[in-house]
Design a protein that fits this description.
This protein is 35% helix and 27% strand. The protein has helices at 40-47, 71-74, 90-100, 105-114, 130-142, 160-175, 187-193, 211-217; strands at residues 2-11, 14-23, 29-33, 55-60, 75-78, 148-152, 179-184, 196-201, 204-210. It is built from eight helices and nine strands. The two termini are 30 Å apart. The longest helix is centred in the C-terminal third of the chain and has 16 residues, at 160-175. It is of the alpha/beta class. The structure holds adenosine-5'-diphosphate (ADP) (2 copies). Residues 2-218 form the ABC transporter domain.
């Protein structure tokens, strides 16, 4: 479960996130929708302990990210496809991540297979297409088999087949009872992918309701 309470983040004079509160339901895909600059990434980065709230809190299963003893087993995230080491192979990148989090190499092979990376796993990441890089990010997020998943703009730049694959994957993860939080600036895509939408504009929540309620209102 992800819970934000009075969450605020200011960068100097810029208020990126302006005191938002929400709670995500397990077993559902919650879409985080809003234009560029709305504060989606900042919120997700704070959930992952990569940025510190100016005020308020965001917790995973009741604890701030940094307070979890085995964080990757609690929450997996795709925040930045560029975070991979370009000179390593996908397999190496995942093995190192697994080793530093006490996750088995058998699990590395499992996530490579699950994410369709088998044919490129032994190639250097710098040669990966955008779609393969996104898949590698997703593989890393799944490594610890976490109950909570955070995907920041995972469909950016994907072709229609890639978009469909991500949609099916997140639906399946939620079907297994996991909490899935996925951001996008594409309303039509979120309407097809999510059960519930939190709409953000200029750091504030504009709407927080089931997808069906938006469709009824239209
Ligand atoms: P989104 O993910 O919805 O596109 P962001 O969370 O990236 O939005 O950005 C929200 C606002 O915060 C923007 O005005 C952005 O310029 C600003 N911002 C984000 N990160 C930083 C940072 N590290 N330093 C200064 N301003 C930032
Ligand atoms: P440090 O700067 O010492 O590495 P952190 O930035 O991880 O420490 O955390 C410093 C403080 O901020 C801690 O008291 C922690 O509980 C709090 N904190 C970190 N992440 C969050 C979060 N997502 N929500 C609320 N508080 C947080």
């Amino acid at each position: 479960m992800i819970t934000a309470s009075g969450l605020r983040k200011a960068y100097g004079a810029t208020t990126a996130v302006d005191g938002i509160s929400f709670s995500l339901a397990p077993g559902k895909v919650t879409g985080f929708l809003g234009p560029n600059g709305a504060g989606k990434s900042t919120t997700m980065r704070m959930a992952m302990g990569l940025d510190r709230p100016t005020a308020g809190s965001i917790t995973i299963n009741g604890k701030a990210f940094a307070e979890h003893r085995a964080p990757l087993r609690e929450v997996g995230a795709v925040l930045d496809a560029g975070a991979a080491h370009p000179g390593w192979t996908g397999h190496q990148q995942l093995r190192i991540l697994a080793a530093t989090h006490d996750i088995s190499t058998a699990r590395v092979d499992e996530v490579i297979e699950m994410t369709g990376l088998t044919s490129v796993a032994d190639k250097r990441i710098r040669g990966y297409s955008l779609g393969m890089s996104q898949r590698l990010g997703i593989a890393a997020a799944l490594l610890g088999d976490p109950g909570v998943l955070i995907f920041d703009e995972p469909i950016n730049g994907l072709d229609p087949e890639g978009v469909r694959w991500v949609r099916q994957l997140v639906r399946r993860l939620a079907g297994q009872g996991r909490t899935v939080f996925i951001s996008s600036h594409l309303m039509s895509e979120m309407a097809q992918t999510a059960d519930h939408l939190i709409v953000l504009g200029r750091g504030r929540i504009i709407a927080d309701q089931p997808v069906g309620d938006f469709l009824d209102a239209a």
